Amino acid sequence: MIEFKPVNTPMAATQPPTTVGGAPFSDPMQYCSVVGALQYVTLTRPNVAFAVNRVCQYMHSPTSDQWIMVKRIPRYLKATANHGFLITKNSALTLQAFTNSDWARNSTDSKSIGGYAIYLGSNLISWTSRKQKIVARSSTESEYKALVDAVAELIGLESLLKKIGCSLYTIPILWCDNIGATYLSANPVFHARIKHL
User: Fold this and answer.
1) In the chain, what are the domain boundaries?
2) CB 150: neighbour CB atoms within 10 A?
């Protein structure tokens, strides 16, 4: 895979349906091995987390089309080999979480993928991208579920920081790009709409 031509994105902008069509991949163990290595890479490269999450969903019976998706990720890593984390000393100990979700993008099971990135000051310290366990009825529900996951992680991180003697200057800040999810999290009146969550 070292000879691959570098690409600018870990996934093609328009992915073909990956659960139908395509011949079965000739070496499923190779698929699983490469995807497993890519899962390890996400520990230090959050920019491939979404793409790796996507290809992980097909490890049980990969096709040649899905193998093409897998091979694109190392090509992207090659193009961005000089990218990395910059951890800086920062006097402002503020936790901030940024959340997002893609509502029902997967046409097979209609489950959304949600994720978050949490910063301490200007340093990225926690992130995730994972398929949600429930089928969201709207983009608001999908975004709200991503908010809930981020809040759970924020609570854990805040507790850890207190235990090691770091006190935060402000309460953690949660950012969301969905106005409905923002209203839902701020106003308990709407909670009847999300009891199933």
Assistant:
1) 1-84, 95-194
2) 26
Rounded Cα distance between 28 and 52, Å, is 16
Going by C-alpha positions, the residue among 159, 145, 90, 152 that lies closest to residue 119 is 90
Strands 173-175 and 95-102: parallel
The encoded tokens of residue 74 equal 């190392």
Pairing of strands 95-102, 113-120: antiparallel
Tokens representing 191 are: 């909670």
Per the listing, tokens 């995807």 go with 35
Residue 124 contacts residue 46 (beta carbons within 8 Å)? yes
Distance CA 180, CA 138 (A): 10
- Considering only the top CATH level, what class is 95-194? alpha beta
Q: What is the DSSP letter of 144?
A: H
Q: How far is CA 50 from CA 38, 88, 98, 149, 196, in A?
A: 11, 26, 15, 16, 26
Q: What is the pLDDT of residues 119-165, one digit of tens each?
A: 998 899 999 988 877 777 787 888 888 888 999 999 999 999 999 98
Asked whether the CA dihedral 13, 19, 20, 24 is positive or negative, the reply is positive
This prediction's pTM: 0.78
CB atoms within 10 A of CB 69: 21
CA separation for the pair 159, 162 (Å, rounded): 5
